[in-house]
Amino acid sequence: MMSSKTHSALSARLDDKHVVVVGGGSGIGHSVASRAYTCGARITIASRDSEKLKRVAGEIGGGVNVAPVNMTDETAVQTWASGLGSIDHLVVSASSASHGPFESLDTQRVRAMFDAKFFGPYVVAREVLPHMNTGGSITLFSGVLSRKPGMNCSGLGAVNGAVESLVRRMALELGPDTRVNCCSPGMVRSDAYAGMDPQAREAMYTSTGESLPVGRVGETVEIADAALFLMTNGYVTGLVLDIDGGHMVRQYATR
Ligand SMILES: NC(=O)c1ccc[n+]([C@@H]2O[C@H](COP(=O)([O-])OP(=O)(O)OC[C@H]3O[C@@H](n4cnc5c(N)ncnc54)[C@H](OP(=O)(O)O)[C@@H]3O)[C@@H](O)[C@H]2O)c1
Predict the structure, then answer these.
(1) By C-alpha distance, which of 170, 191, 173, 175 is closest to 240?
(2) Mean of the pLDDT values across residues 54-64?
(3) Is there a contact between 213 and 242 (Cβ–Cβ < 8 Å)?
(4) 113 CA distance to ligand 1 middle (Å)
(5) What does each C-alpha distance from 173 to 125, 127, 230, 236, 241 come to in angstroms?
(6) In this structure, what DSSP letter does residue 196 have?
(7) Are the C-beta atoms of residues 178 and 148 closer than 8 Å to each other?
(8) CATH class of the domain whose range is 15-242
(9) Residue 187 in contact with ligand 1 by CB distance below 6 A
(10) What is the pLDDT of residues 234-243, one digit of tens each?
(11) What pTM, to 2 d.p., does this model score?
């Protein structure tokens, strides 16, 4: 029998819930914020670029709150978190990535990636926690490279693995008040690739898509739907959810 705390992902509502999306100014985070808004949530989006955040907030709809922060500045995160009010669900999709051969990728670039994709979410989650309502959730992001190695991605794969490991331990320590989960996307069409040459980007999407059982790369809304499932299903914690078009079972890999 369903208790009053049980939700179906398909009928999930977030009325009056405050959802904070760090990384909400672009890509997957933008889609998460839009979907949660549609489900009735109060939304705060964060990242470093306040002008971009204001523009995206306007696109999502009226009343979306903008709260700029640089996740790698621990002092700034502390001040930022204490200004958010009470929070029901935290999603951290913000990150930056560096690629390069293991033998030559500069150590500073790897450290910067750990700062942005591991320590940023780590500090954000810790500082937001005292402001979270009981029954809330935290969702962090890793990616397929954590468990499926790719060429020139040793550092990025390692940081993804660290995030997944952290999530399992946080879930244990923070329950039953707060659930903690991880979205692990495969390749999706996102602002993350906006800096690429358009033709090279399409070629990358096509060749990656052809290697996957679903025959295409993903869309940000497909990852957002998974994030909403993690947010709203009260029986899910400590989960790393792969939303990757079958990347984990694809024929791997050419050199
Ligand atoms: N897209 C994919 O194919 C893919 C595949 C696997 C995993 N993922 C993972 O999924 C997550 C979301 O990816 P995405 O495609 O949505 O990325 P995205 O479009 O590049 O968005 C990343 C966001 O992070 C923000 N950001 C970066 N550094 C920050 C910092 N120090 N402080 C605060 N905000 C910061 C950026 O905004 P500002 O520049 O304004 O700060 C941006 O809004 C990431 O963890 C990514 O690694 C993505």
Answers:
(1) 170
(2) 97
(3) no
(4) 11
(5) 13, 15, 18, 15, 20
(6) S
(7) no
(8) alpha beta
(9) yes
(10) 999 999 999 9
(11) 0.95
